[in-house]
Amino acid sequence: MAIDELIYRIRYLKNPSVAGLDPQLRFIPECVWDQLNVRGGARPDEGNGLEAAASAIRLFNFAIIDAVANIVPAVKLQIAMYERFGADGIAAYADTISYAKRRGAMVIADIKRGDIDSTAEAYADAHLGRTEVRGRNYAVFDADFATINPYLGEDAVEPFIKACRSYGKGVFILVKTSNPMSGQIQDLPVNGAPLYEYVAGLVSKWGKDLIRESGYSEVGAVVGATHTSQAARLREIMPHTFFLAPGYGFQGAKAADIVKGSVVNSSRGIIAAYQKDPYKRRFTHEQFALAAAAAAADMREDLSCLKI
Asked: Is 112 an active-site residue?
């Protein structure tokens, strides 16, 4: 089961953190483009620039995964960072998921999908479940977890929960996000409490039949580490819900801001570490993956106070 496996890996590696593979071209060093040339690939100014960019992302991701696979229990892929490069980018997304799983890391597909039931079913089939073609079933992206948006209500969430039941997968449902303007909608009062608390009650209800041996449900919640007091209240409402906590590092959250029972994401703080102090003083651009490993190890040390 996905949640039990995630918690096992967190405990085994002594690390409740996730490396966010959210690549931007400005993060990719020149040595990666040079490697494409050696392999006969095109640069952005030669032939299909989108294909070249996707190939560079693929090489960059694989190097990062090799460097951090024995440090972090999971990686998270924000699909928008791949969709911007079209079909080539989606191919890089799929290849990155496959490679991460081969290297032993669990995969969170950060897709934030939410739509009517038939569309939600298609999303769930693609990212967590199976797609049937003439009597045969195919795992398409085959992530371990997906992030989903509950705004359309239970019928939009149920196809993903069905995938959890059928395939041992998990979801993280948006409850209180880390972005600065999240309160514009999520903090609106509903029956005397903020909307995010009402959503938390629904998440707890939707996940009650999927609580596993670890004591946590396959139905988790996205709760930003930038909202310390709100997160503590949400832990009271959702005692069996595992949290995915964005906002650490670049957005300002620190280890002390994170509640028990959370896995913590860092994206640019790991994958672009070679561009930032103190790592850029220790590693060259060619050593970008080593810098990522060092940043991931430092994050593990910083979060060592957290208990699962």
From this structure: yes
